[in-house]
């Protein structure tokens, strides 16, 4: 391979073993080998997967057709591999899912994501055993493709307000699904447009003249042979979006569609043949699937951010622009401190969020065990944690990817860079599966409840610091170490929650209702929940690093320690107003933090390319003119431009039709 | 018109006369009438302009063809109107330009923008009289369409590094244009792909064996009759981008292309027939066109932001979601304080930036007068001001439009909302005509120079506060009024510049070169330049409001005063860390600011829809399912979805080809 000289030079001077870090990121040597094996299988079908006109030049309809073509191939490869690797057993669910998500080769998503991310998990958590026996094998094998229809045109966040009805008819032992208004049309479900033939539908359950709130039903949408929509069903796709145009988001409306009684998912609540409604033991049990999905979103966001920083960092090493000193050759833009400031935090964030999400995933599995034993104690905490972590992770990764994109200048605006599409995916994640502001307010609600019961409640681990920080006081001498900063953030979070509570109390004293006071304080509540989340992420990152670093070689330990340091300093400086307001940090301390931050950027500079190489994203997955491993940036930009169908003719027909008459004054 | 009830209700309760504000925004009653007249002319050609498949479903090539079709029609309407209105005189340049930019009906830009925004202004400022006589009339009438080719694949920011050469051949009295490398290909010029037939090309001028740096040349690119590229020229479009796909950005390479000597633009520097180079009087004179373009960018950014806030605010009034109180009907989301926090600052920003840009524009014209008189005194200040104002305006409008987009939840991700395209235009502006980071560093360089000469230099108006703030001291008692906050920001800016200078001095003392110290301090320098810009914008907004408000009715004065207040409070809270670090503001003060900010949001709430109605953007320009005047949000979303060609068939062909074999295990 003919590698750009500057990029090669960066690799030569890297201080640590890149493969060692790659294996750590993958979760072990075997995982890396496994991944590389799948990559080989994908490359074997390179022509069919990556040939033809680039997707960015296609029409909306052509993009969908391309998406089906390539994603069917990928899905088949992953399925076969997992089946072989696990002796026919596909039940290691997170493996299948993350492997699949890692190998999305269409830059605007895959129509099969929802089948694995929502349809199957919801089914697993809400169908009873008999239903699982009936449906799961076919769903696992993709004999049917499912979607998950909850959101409606008129309702997203507030699911209690959903309008779709499922009314039980005891005479025929069927539910009648109906969409009474335009706003009750389901809107957004991935794959639902023209791909899925089954769907879990969330609707208001009515029986014996009473409404029992929302429940989930499995509904066949299209004929399995002809794929034609079934009678009474109006289904289609919702149209072009900012990104993710290969997800095939759809709408669906029901005109008195009848489904059998047993299509209500009955693990928790049931409707008996005569129409009697049997309540769920605990309505909070459904939180499980939501927590699962939100953790997956954090992992997936890290995935996309690592693409963005790989592209932007390699480009910054290849791009030469301006002189640091007069009469010297132009420098690599990665030598500019402002550029390091934009990029390196992105690298650190990938590790910080991945370690946090892994820990959350483990906690999730523990709590699942406890749930099975009937212990619901940690469920609210886990839910609150997943809410804020999803919100902060998606917001941070979206902002940092966008920062990386802009750091590539104009070329980052080219779709051939892959950056606009990557940013658009991360952007969507700020909204889907719970709007970030709404999620942070849910976390805030939990925190306020904890704060109000601080004297009496047994505190679960992630909020225990609220009491200790309060007891130990926050006026301790400030300490500029990572541990000191974490303590500072704990104080900030504690004080913010405390102030929100006081502020609401004051407002209620002056005559506001509790709800009005909550609303008037909500901007501060959102900020408090974010602060809490920063405590969790920074302290998890630090703790996990300390835990795993003993297994690292000294060189890797050194560079990872720099990343932990960088991450902590970055957020200390970003949230300086909080530290200044709530802790005893001095102006001199802040100046030292700033200087140490600048020095840390410099210390990371020589290893930056090595750090993104360690993400080990192959060119065919990265799909970027700016970020390919060999650094042939300019040649690739030109090659991709020449593939534009507009460039196939020297003169476009619109010249004769419109432009020439205009120029010659004959219009 | 059947208007959504909630929206109508908002309009009924608006406290001020919307038309009064509209006329103020337009710049007078007559301007409003003029605009409405052009709108009528455009609506008369509604079918041809807005019919057919929505542009979001088209392929890249089809988008270009649509762009030419619609923009030729619009251009013709504006031209005819301006000619009639000005008795054949089209020289009121800013009018033509802003009118044209206001009426861009393609959501991804117009291929004619560059002709007016760059080609003509550069020509006006760099061509000598004879050249202007020869070319201008044809350019004014669009008999030729021009582009401006400066940026190359390998060089954007650092124009001294451009590689394209123009070598004078005294024997034939011609320049030979040449692109020696791939990286020397011009890349990005709008309209250059398949639209423009002329182009101003920036190249390194060589004569008599010497290089004299970059100069501008006018070059014919395509035959006027056939539109075929001329010999030796390789031209095409650069491919799909994140947005602005109707701009038709192009690339061009020259293979020893010969152009006459008089195609060098000779207002400032000349090459005589024998090849003698005659230097420009002052190399800074070219700053004029750059300042002009940057002011236009600020106006245009405001334009796009006002679209985004119109859409998001109207949607927030129509959308009902969740309950503020249990058992009440669902509330309009505009009632949530978090929503007001996201939207109202956008409305205030439109006014703040527009007033600032107007003042900068007037200053620009004054300085142009002085330049003609040989007085270059204010040029560096003006240049520094235009740099930071372009950077801060584009960054703010991009962030606020994106915030507004996200505030619409999932629907803001739909292209039919118009928001993704609007955000993508604003995003591009952060990079084009000077990357924002680079521009802020240019302002910083000016500020550092001023600071170092504080005792001796005569200070120009926009930096005079540096001395007065220093002299009057910054430890005065803090004052929470708008004036007090402005004074606080002046102190912050002064202190930051001062600290940057100390920091660099310290680094140089410890052995760094001046350039290294500059680079290591550049993150802080960028922040200092931003602070300076905040001083300018907030104080201009405040001053201009005080100046014009006497002509407002009391009701309008009240609401505009709230906007000034909101804008100031928002930035005080956003930049609290600076105020805490550098002024005597107390924690109690900050709490009062927060409370006043929340109260101001509430006070603006009833007038929010009126405020965006006052931007008076007609539906055909706004092109948004979420933002149309009548608020038929959900019906429009569905109507637009149904226009997707993918929805024309119930089953897509990819089902038979790929999906069915997969589902039936026959792949």
UniProtKB/TrEMBL annotation, chains A, B:
Its cofactor is FAD. It is found in: Peroxisome. The keyword Transferase does not apply. Belongs to the acyl-CoA oxidase family. SUPFAM superfamilies: Acyl-CoA dehydrogenase C-terminal domain-like, Acyl-CoA dehydrogenase NM domain-like. FAD binds at residues 151, 190. This is Acyl-coenzyme A oxidase. It comes from Bombyx mori. The keyword Lyase does not apply. Its main location: other. Keywords: FAD, Fatty acid metabolism, Flavoprotein, Lipid metabolism, Oxidoreductase, Peroxisome. Gene3D superfamilies: Acyl-CoA dehydrogenase/oxidase, N-terminal domain, Butyryl-CoA Dehydrogenase, subunit A, domain 2, Butyryl-CoA Dehydrogenase, subunit A, domain 3.
